[in-house]
């Protein structure tokens, strides 16, 4: 019953990118005592989203709803950045775009697409492994982050029943 949702999910997953920017800039607006602007932008986003849904859902169905959400988030993010740049310059730190996770995500997504006929577990796990390996291979994490991940993985492995059985 969920087979036809793949295209919609493909569009919806990309809303996470502008949503992250929207959340960050919303906190900046509130921190700068501009919550009234944040509220006005939320209302405007709702109107834009409803209008896009009215237009796109009859023509494209669930995919249209997903695309309406993506477009709404992009409009919202652009509006926040434009407002802050014009009326509150210097209140937000510039957001740098690191291409390493984006490239790794595109590779993992392409791998998922290529493996369409494979079992779900393989299609879910292998792209995640490739994504993580690409991040490590590109030295995306600094030494402190790698050290913290090692410590966390040691703590996690200490709780596994298999490890206890082997050591006893």
Number of helices, counting only DSSP H or I runs of 4 residues or more: 8
Q: What is the percent of helical residues?
A: over 70%
Based on CA atoms alone, the radius of gyration comes out at 21 Å
Mean pLDDT: 89
Structural class: mainly alpha
Beginning-to-end CA distance, first to last residue: 47 Å
Shape assignment = flat
Order of helix and strand elements from N to C terminus = HHHHHHHH
Uncertain segments? none
Largest sheet: none
Number of strands: 0
β-sheet strand percentage: under 5%
Observed structural traits:
mainly alpha; 79% helix; 168 residues
Description:
It is a single chain. This protein starts with 5 loop residues before the first helix and ends with a helix. Helix 2 runs parallel beside helix 4 and helix 3 packs antiparallel against helix 4. The protein is an all-alpha fold and about 170 residues long. It is built from 8 helices and no strands.
């Amino acid at each position: 019953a969920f087979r036809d949702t793949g295209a919609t999910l493909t569009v919806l997953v990309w809303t996470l990118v502008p949503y992250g920017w929207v959340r960050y800039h919303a906190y900046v607006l509130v921190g700068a005592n501009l919550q009234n602007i944040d509220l006005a932008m939320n209302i405007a986003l709702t109107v834009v989203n409803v209008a896009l849904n009215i237009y796109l859902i009859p023509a494209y169905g669930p995919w249209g709803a997903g695309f309406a959400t993506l477009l709404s988030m992009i409009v919202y993010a652009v509006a926040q950045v434009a407002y802050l740049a014009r009326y509150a310059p210097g209140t937000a730190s510039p957001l740098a775009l690191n291409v390493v996770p984006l490239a790794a995500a595109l590779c993992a997504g392409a791998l998922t697409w290529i493996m369409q006929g494979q079992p779900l577990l393989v299609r879910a796990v292998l792209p995640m492994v490739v994504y993580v390996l690409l991040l490590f291979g590109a030295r995306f994490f600094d030494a402190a982050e790698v050290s913290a991940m090692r410590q966390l993985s040691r703590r996690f492995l200490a709780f596994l029943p298999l490890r206890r059985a082997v050591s006893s």
